[in-house]
Amino acid sequence: FVPLLAWTVRFRGRMGTEPVPTVAELYSAPVAYLQLLMMAAGVALLAAAVAAGAPFAARGAASLYLLGVLLFAGQIVRVVYGGRLGSGS
Q1: Which residues contact 45 (CB under 8 A, 6 or more apart)?
Q2: What is the pLDDT of residues 31-43, one digit of tens each?
Q3: pLDDT confidence of residue 43
Q4: Which of 27, 54, 58, 64 is exposed most, by the fewest CB atoms within 10 A?
Q5: Which residues, including other chains, have CB under 8 Å from residue 16's CB and lie 6 or more apart?
Q6: pLDDT for 62
Q7: Do 23 and 3 form a contact (C-beta atoms < 8 A)?
Q8: Residues 12, 81: contact at Cβ < 8 Å?
Q9: Where does residue 18 rank: exposed (0-12), middle (13-18), buried (19+ CB within 10 A)?
Q10: How far, in Å, CA of 33 to CA of 56, rounded?
């Protein structure tokens, strides 16, 4: 849902007046899949680490979740400011 909102912010003034790229052309599905895996694993591992009372493991799990969040933020920045995937921009 957020990629669509970011796309709308970027192209709202050009919709209907000129060709605009689709969200899929600006958003990488493989990166989104990796982001989903990292965030899901981070949450599961964080819950297990907290239940086990392992603060070092909890920090690692939280870091994994953070990496997923950063991937997602990078995707949104690409939709708002970047070019089409594979276009060299």
Answers
A1: 57, 60, 61, 64
A2: 999 999 999 999 9
A3: 98
A4: 54
A5: none
A6: 97
A7: yes
A8: no
A9: exposed
A10: 26
Q: Looking at this protein, which amino acid is placed at residue 80?
A: V
Q: How many CB atoms lie within 10 A of CB 63?
A: 13
Residue 74 and residue 77: Cα distance in Å, rounded?
5
Taking alpha carbons only, the member of 14, 16, 10 closest to residue 78 is 10
- pLDDT of residue 88 exceeding 50, the answer is no
Average pLDDT over residues 19-34: 86
What is the greatest pairwise CA distance in the chain?
58
Q: Using CA atoms, how far apart are residues 2 and 4, in angstroms rounded to an integer?
A: 5
By the 8 A CB rule, do 28 and 85 touch?
A: yes
Q: Output the average pLDDT for the chain.
A: 87
